[in-house]
Every structure is written in structure tokens, then in C-alpha cells.
């Protein structure tokens, strides 16, 4: 079993009958959705919403009952991956480009469990370029504003084209090296009008399950204050 699968399958143990579940995006969330599909086929009764088209397609194929956002006003639990997590469960997310939907879904959940392999656990966030979703209109100005925050922003590409999110926006990957205060940076990012959302998740996750190459897992729990 690979370490992502190890962490993801442990997280699925927290899903109980009757829960409304948020399905994350990425190669670790993939394993959680797969395990959830197995449990649904064994009789687990849940409903779910997905954070990306890819996760929605996977869930549908596995027979996980999906509902629309007009049918539920909140979720019990979201299981999602991360690109970086620190000891207080501040996260960088958005490597897969789904950060806006991921944040909407995680914020609408009573609980968020992060699943990751040990390479994602860091002391200080910032080695992974911070994904920032921006509107295509005047993206040049938005990128210039991002650079003023001390990073090197690069518009994400998909082959010869600019990458577009499921919401039709661009992603600027912002290389900071180290983020001294994620909270201060989040405030600065929110002040830029062309920024739709950024990949800093602060005070959202309350548990992380980290899979390690020796076959063990580490569970980090914090009071997210939510
Ligand atoms: O934020 C995400 C997608 O937007 C993913 O959860 C993050 O990129 C981690 O992905 P993976 O599990 O494939 O390493």
C-alpha cells in the first residue's frame, strides 16, 4: 500500500452512516474516494459533494450518492489533500487547481481532515509555490500586484495554453520560499481585486493524517476554532 493510500484510508474510518461528506481533489483524495466507494458498496449510507469535476466523475463511477449544493446547507466532514501542512495545520492547497471549490466545501464542513504523505509536512509554509486563483480580466495587473507581495508569480500553463480552473479562472503560482506569517499574507492577498481565492487554508482543518514511508501514520489534531 502506498503512503497516500495509507493516510486516505485511515481518514475514511471517520466517515459514519448518515454523514454528508465533502470529497477532495488530487492523488491522495483519490484514494479516500476509492475507499469510500468500497464502503458505500458495502452498505454505508452517505451523501457527498465533490470539489472538482475529476472527483465528481470518480465518485459517480463508484456509486457514491452525490447531491447538489441546493440540497444541503452544510457538510459533516471533508477529506482532502494538501501541498504543504505545518504543525498548526495551516495549509497550502491548490496544486491540482481546485482551491476555490476546496475552500468553499471545507469551510462549509463541520470538520476537515487533511490526508497527505510525509513529504507535505513542513515547519514553515512556502517552499511549494502558493496557488492563487485570479480572474482572466486584467490578469497582468493582478500578477503585478502579487509580485509586490514579495513573490515570483507564474501563470500556470497546461501545454501551450494557460491553465483554466473548473471556474474558468487562471492560477498564478507564487514562489515565496518561506511565508513568515500566513495570516498576514492571506489578508494582503484578499485586498487584491483580481484575486478570487488563494491556497492558504488557515484555521480550517482540525486533523491531518500523514502517511509515512515506514508504513506508520501520524495524526495531528488541533482546535481549528470552528
Ligand atoms: O489542493 C489540491 C488540489 O487543488 C490537492 O489536494 C493538493 O494539490 C494535493 O494533491 P496530491 O494529493 O495529489 O499531492
From TrEMBL:
SUPFAM superfamilies: D-ribose-5-phosphate isomerase (RpiA), lid domain, NagB/RpiA/CoA transferase-like. Its EC number is 5.3.1.6. It comes from the Bacteria. Keywords: Isomerase. The active site is at residue 102. Substrate binds at residues 25-28, 80-83, 93-96, 120. It catalyses: aldehydo-D-ribose 5-phosphate = D-ribulose 5-phosphate. GO terms for molecular function: ribose-5-phosphate isomerase activity. Pfam families: Rib_5-P_isom_A (PF06026). It is an enzyme of class 5 (isomerase). Pathway: Carbohydrate degradation; pentose phosphate pathway; D-ribose 5-phosphate from D-ribulose 5-phosphate (non-oxidative stage): step 1/1. Catalyzes the reversible conversion of ribose-5-phosphate to ribulose 5-phosphate. Homodimer. Belongs to the ribose 5-phosphate isomerase family. This is Ribose-5-phosphate isomerase A.
Amino acid at each position: 500500500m502506498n503512503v497516500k493510500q495509507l493516510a486516505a484510508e485511515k481518514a475514511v474510518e471517520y466517515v459514519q452512516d448518515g454523514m454528508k461528506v465533502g470529497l477532495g481533489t488530487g492523488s491522495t483524495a483519490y484514494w479516500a474516494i476509492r475507499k469510500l466507494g468500497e464502503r458505500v458498496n458495502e452498505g454505508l449510507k452517505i451523501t457527498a459533494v465533490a470539489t472538482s469535476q475529476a472527483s465528481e466523475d470518480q465518485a459517480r463511477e463508484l456509486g457514491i450518492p452525490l447531491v447538489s449544493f441546493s440540497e444541503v446547507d452544510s457538510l459533516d466532514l471533508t477529506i482532502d489533500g494538501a501541498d504543504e501542512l505545518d504543525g498548526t495545520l495551516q495549509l497550502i492547497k491548490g496544486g491540482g487547481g481546485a482551491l476555490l471549490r476546496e475552500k468553499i466545501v471545507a469551510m462549509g464542513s463541520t470538520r476537515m481532515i487533511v490526508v497527505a504523505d510525509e513529504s507535505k509536512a513542513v515547519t514553515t509554509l512556502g517552499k511549494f509555490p502558493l496557488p492563487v486563483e485570479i480572474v482572466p480580466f486584467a490578469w497582468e495587473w493582478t500578477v503585478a500586484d502579487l509580485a509586490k507581495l514579495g513573490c515570483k508569480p507564474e501563470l500556470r500553463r497546461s501545454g501551450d495554453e494557460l491553465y483554466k480552473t473548473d471556474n474558468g479562472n487562471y492560477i498564478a503560482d507564487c514562489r515565496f520560499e518561506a511565508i513568515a506569517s500566513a495570516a498576514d499574507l492571506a489578508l494582503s492577498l484578499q485586498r487584491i481585486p483580481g484575486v478570487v481565492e488563494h491556497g492558504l487554508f488557515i484555521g480550517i482543518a482540525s486533523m491531518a493524517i500523514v502517511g509515512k514511508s515506514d508504513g506508520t501514520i501520524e495524526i495531528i489534531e488541533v482546535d481549528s476554532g470552528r
